[in-house]
Amino acid sequence: MARQRRADGEESRRKILDAAVEVASERGYDGTSIALVSAKCGLPASSIYWHFKDKDELIATVIERSFATWLEAVRLADLTGPAAERVKTLAVSVANALLEAPDFLRLGLMLALERRPQDPSARTVFLRVRDTAHTYVAGIIRSIDGKLDESAVELLVTYAIAAADGLFIAKEIGGDRVDLVRLFELHARAVLTAADQLGVTG
Amino acid sequence: MARQRRADGEESRRKILDAAVEVASERGYDGTSIALVSAKCGLPASSIYWHFKDKDELIATVIERSFATWLEAVRLADLTGPAAERVKTLAVSVANALLEAPDFLRLGLMLALERRPQDPSARTVFLRVRDTAHTYVAGIIRSIDGKLDESAVELLVTYAIAAADGLFIAKEIGGDRVDLVRLFELHARAVLTAADQLGVTG
Amino acid sequence: MARQRRADGEESRRKILDAAVEVASERGYDGTSIALVSAKCGLPASSIYWHFKDKDELIATVIERSFATWLEAVRLADLTGPAAERVKTLAVSVANALLEAPDFLRLGLMLALERRPQDPSARTVFLRVRDTAHTYVAGIIRSIDGKLDESAVELLVTYAIAAADGLFIAKEIGGDRVDLVRLFELHARAVLTAADQLGVTG
Amino acid sequence: MARQRRADGEESRRKILDAAVEVASERGYDGTSIALVSAKCGLPASSIYWHFKDKDELIATVIERSFATWLEAVRLADLTGPAAERVKTLAVSVANALLEAPDFLRLGLMLALERRPQDPSARTVFLRVRDTAHTYVAGIIRSIDGKLDESAVELLVTYAIAAADGLFIAKEIGGDRVDLVRLFELHARAVLTAADQLGVTG
DNA sequence: AATGAATGAGGATTCATTCAT
DNA sequence: AATGAATGAATCCTCATTCAT
Prior knowledge:
The structure is a homotetramer. Chain A has helices at about 1-30, 35-40, 45-50, 55-75, 85-100, 105-115, 120-145, 150-175, 180-200. Chain A is mainly α. Chain A has two domains: about 1-60, Homeodomain-like (Arc Repressor Mutant, subunit A, Orthogonal Bundle); about 65-200, Tetracycline Repressor, domain 2. The longest helix of chain A is centred in the N-terminal third of the chain and has 30 residues, at about 1-30. Chain A is elongated. Chain A starts with a helix and ends with a helix. The interface between A and B is large, with 44 and 44 residues. Chain B binds a DNA duplex through helix 3.
């Protein structure tokens, strides 16, 4: 019985977050009203405040949870083999993860583009996650070509991640007319080629 | 010479739009309140409604005007020389135009990412402009390599524009740590190389 | 030429009043906004204020003009013959006039029912017209039966006019399902019978 | 006993409705502003929206409740005796109920006269109630004279109700100068006489 | 005779949040 | 662990009206 009670709390929290991702990734920070989330999850607005301090915390949690979901979908564990192979595998698994769990990046980019006086903490969370990704990708890029200097690595990492963002947006806008996986394969090749060129030139 | 104190409609309209671009490209559709725009342009909220039917029309006009501004900054006229040169020139002038007039793309991408039941017309306007750009870039890509089949052209155009979006976002997020022009040069080379590879393979 | 100019003024005034009757008799005093009237007549709101001091005066004029229209439709001139005949003729011509020109009574009754702190002058105009009608009908009633005392006349006049109002409303609500002329004939007979009964009893 | 200071929903709802009848039956649909109701009931405007979806629902509820109040005041139970007696008793009790609880009909008629594109649901509610009354009165009329054909019954019912409406309006306009009960007695007699005449003629 | 533009007040409604239970 | 009710501030937008031209 007691366990059931506990479980209900968890369940409500989950229902709220489920509703909130949906709303937030559809309409952004301002467009996400507590009333809308409440309507979508079936719980009264006041119950949302029992689980979350305020709207800011709710949306920050949404970003965190949807990132976790996305990360699980990426499953990077088996990145082995030559660098070129690793880059391509990474690209494809990122693409597939974005198809499976697009909420994280959709909402994250929306937050990243907005610039209000008092930054929502969800934005901070997103930027932090993005920084981690930057460091991670930098490691991979360096392993492609040891001769790359740091400024070239920076450039390549920024390019690699930025283009990934852009491709995701293209998919969001274009829907079925856009083949995300093929685009990411193209992207992987482009980054590898660029690394070669920079390794020689730079 | 004598500026009328009252009833200079054109000027007021301009002041409203100036305020609105600023607000909208900072905070997106929902975050743009008429009260904020009113405060920023000095005219009462009700006057905004004399010039624009509603918020939707206001923001759609903002997108239109800021696109025109951006387009002027691009100055494509002098695209001559071999294809490779043209691609690079285009990339650099796009990059510079985005540095000079970033409002159009910042707001446009924010709108594009949102997916509310009833699409704001500003979003429609942005997507239309984007389509035109797509067609335009397709022409350039075809001129690089006549052997590219249409699906390869589509892929490359989508990639070219998507990565440009992403780079812009990277600059927005990263600020001075990001060298947008250098990234666009890298991007131009990447697209050219990819065109070569696809022209042979595809 | 000059005459043309003059005529334009009259024409605008007429267009405004035409629009205003329509709106006012559809939506009452509060529901009639200058913007709506302006949209319906094609002239800007400020032009309405050139012709009428304010909304109050506009609607008062509407009532006056639509009363005149109605009165013209009644054409009472030929009320001759025995009292019973006159009453019936009056009833039928009132009924027909209400079918032809219903705006006056519709708007008038709407105004009469409302009771706001500061009475619109249109309401006053309506009540005055109504008083005149009362006096007029009293004359007719007295001519039916000289033995009626004044309190009986009052009662009958009030009843005669009140029922007429009610029948008009029934027609407004019921539309084609209601035969207004037949109802007014029934009403005329009822009033005559009541006069007989009161003349004996009272 | 202990009245809760907060969160007595039923009581608040009642206070809102009390305020709303007063305002609405004085000023009609458009004239009833939420701010006015709020001021009159002491609750903030936003609280009104906790209890009612929107103004439309509020006023529809007002009509429903004020009809119930009026119906209670009519107390039809004791309609016995010969038809003539029943008609007279009904007339007098309707008159008295209208004196006690005039809000329902005053507001209802105001709504009935307005004809805006999108009918307020309060109007629909009123017309439905009115239809029920029509059926009820038809039963009584038929019981007066079995020989009346249906078209005559229709005519008489429409006349009976319409004149009642008109008499109510006369009382509203005329105030103390109008003796509503006496008018309704006159009306009852008129309807009975008319039924006799139609029974023979029709 | 007319009108484009402006304006402060007020319209309905939704907002994020709180609090007593 | 949850919720019904409340609330002040803010939302978009319309109001009647004015005034310089």
